[in-house]
Amino acid sequence: MQYLLNTALSEGGACYDKFNACVEDIPNGDQHCKESWGCLMGAKTNAEVNQCKYNATKSAQDQMDKIFDCARTACKDDCSADPNSQACNDCFTGALDPTNGACKAEITTCTNDANPA
């Protein structure tokens, strides 16, 4: 489900334009990407995930979106049949590995962002 939702809301997705028109008023905080990403990776509930995103600067939010866009692209084959499958989950976990994952470059860019934008 999460993969389908993220795909629909990603740039070029079926709901992208309508979603962005609705969320232009999402609060932006003052946390840089490194801090926001750490918050996000430790979040246990949807409310915590949302708070991590709201606390992030717009630049940090955009950088985190790039990380998830990368993971969706890397895991397209594993997630297309069943976005809730173990294979999809394992792919996302691997893609988001900051050491060896497919999205290492995007994560590194985010975690090197030590200054709020």
Task: Please provide a written account of the structure.
The chain has 117 residues and is mainly alpha-helical. It has one domain. The protein has helices at residues 2-9, 16-23, 33-42, 46-55, 58-74, 76-80, 86-95, 104-111.
The low-confidence runs, each spanning 5 or more residues with pLDDT under 50, are: none
Instruction: State the domain count.
Output: 1
Annotation, overall tally of beta strands = 0
Cα end-to-end separation: 32 Å
Helix content: 55-70%
Order of helices and strands: HHHHHHHH
Strand content: under 5%
Q: Which class do the helix and strand fractions yield?
A: mainly alpha
Strand-helix topology:
Elements: H1 2-9, H2 16-23, H3 33-42, H4 46-55, H5 58-74, H6 76-80, H7 86-95, H8 104-111
Helix pairs in contact: 3-4, 3-5, 5-8
Record keyword descriptors for this entry.
mainly alpha; 0% strand; 117 residues; 8 helices
In short:
The chain has helices at residues 2-9, 16-23, 33-42, 46-55, 58-74, 76-80, 86-95, 104-111.
